[in-house]
Amino acid sequence: xxxxxxxxxxxxxxxxxxxxxxxxxxxxxxxxxxxGKYCCWAIAAVxxxxxxxxxxxxxxxxxxxxxxxxxxxxxxxTLETAGxxxxxxxxxxxxxxxxxxxxxxxxxAGFTLLAIVLLPVVMAGILGYALFKRRVKGAYFAIxxxxxxxxxxxxxxxxxxxTGGDTGLSDFKYFFGFVxxxxxxxxxxxxxxxxxxxxxxxxxxxxxxxxxxxxxVATRDAxxxxxxxxxxxxxxxxxxxxVSALMASIGGAMFVPIVGIITPAEIGAAASILMIAGVAFGxxxxxxxxxxxxxxxxxxxxxxxxxxxxxWTYILGLLFIVVILFLPNGLSSLPARFTGRARRKPVDxxxxxxxxxxxxxxxx
Amino acid sequence: xxALIAPLLNGSAQGALLLLAALGLSLTFGQMGVINMxxxxxxxxxxxxxxxxxxxxxxxxLSIPVALPVAFVVAGLFGLLLEVTIIQWMYRRPLDxxxxxxxxxxxxxxxxxxxxxxxxxxxxxxxxxxxxLNILGYDWPLRQLFTILLATVCVAxxxxxxKYTSFGRRIRATVHNRDLAETSGISTRTIDRLTxxxxxxxxxxxxxxxxxxxxxxxxxxxxxxxxxxxxxxAGGIGQLKGTIIAAWAVGVALAxxxxxxxxxxxxxxxFILVIVFLQLRPQGLFxxxxxxxx
Lengths: 364, 294
Description:
heterodimer, A: 364 residues, mainly alpha, two-stranded antiparallel ribbon, two-stranded antiparallel sheet, 16 helices, 4 strands, B: 294 residues, 74% helix, globular, cell membrane (chain A), LivM-like (chain A), membrane (chain A), Urea ABC transporter permease subunit UrtC (chain A), transmembrane helix (chain A)
């Protein structure tokens, strides 16, 4: 990638044209809306690709950050729809209670946008600092992040009056003053999501080319050596983790106006794992792999999952097994395999593994 | 005083159930470094095995003692199958193993959902588990005592197996230094399979215990897997006594939190507690001192 930056950049260009110009012209409203939803997952997936594919941090709880963006946006849209009144679902449970204090600031559009950006950055910052400084990594890190996703989903499920509980937040009428039902505005919302996806791709393209990108890969492959060279791997990982959380939050925020509902089911363990599935399928360490993989899995879920839900779960399970067992670098590594430039070793293993493997080969 | 004691009793039983769920994980994760996300589904298999045993043996009083070994073997065989078909190819890719087993767990969950009714199946509680036993002035429900007893027996059996049998010695040798163990003539492949069989089997036993306390359905495994992992992590990988203490502590903490707040908030608080604890001791309660850099 670093050798031919312009190929990747023109790839992003083609992708942007397809998404922003061609898709709105050729797709029906229904499929454009679906594509918008896939874009939101893809935005989160680009972040996962950065943290996991490049950084070796398997984040199994991106739903947490997706939720921060989604619920911030949903609270604002709910208040916008409710106007001066208390949101309908709250009245249902306790007609006289006031608006919970933490809802109040979300009346402001500016605050909401700020929250979508700052909440994940602060939370991932604190969490990442705490974990990486203590050198928590690998499976521990993966499980802890998933535990957080489970905890948050449980918490939201149980606070019906404050967050809508399992039913979540829905029935949004306005999006920052625009009527959401208007087809033209729907196209606009789609374009924002697709545009943000392109921006995120550009951002990681630039990051991957930078010194930081090299350092991130170095940290993934040989953390101790990076430390001996005088860098603090914790800081490198922290930046990648925070950026990836921010992307998940942006994806979540756009998910809300496009899909029209956010529930704990969209952010819990299963949803977080679905995001991982897309990234693994597309190719975790590549530029386009995570985004395209997430879109493919999203498409699979809405086309297969709605007509044949049982089968879809089996396919998803098999996808995990087959891709990770036989194609650890995802579909994006297929072309290289055929042209014989395959990297045989999966990308996020400790540096010692190949050495041990070589020793074993010598012995046998 | 009762307000303080009641959650303690309750939490001890909850801790025992967690310990049962974590025991097999501690074996496969601790001894082999394999993160098996399908462990919860093996637990589920044990619970369904208990149900099926009850369909055959209608005398409920006898069915649970029969179900325990059956569940152990059924879950163990599934574990062995998983090891032979998938995991053995992935020993040097821990994170990938984690993801592959996520796929396995999705498939097993869906299969269970299709074979058994979606609302779950009832596992009858035998008569001798009803009632309470008065110890030191407090009434202990027999069901809770049974869970604690079962966990104690399993821990004792596991540690005796590891300590006194030749298989146990070979397992420990393999963990300490795989290459050296292999050079000394130990078939590490056999050891891996055996460890996986035993670890998964223990999940099955945990499943029987879980079926006596909560519901038996396709989602039950997912409910136990994360807490069980946190217990193993907090206890220190491959440390039996650490796992025991951590399971008890998490169980009791959950019970007290649930007593003071709500059940779901208790879970959140317990998760935070474990994360904070891992801050203080990233390697868990007890650690094996090694000279490795990573």
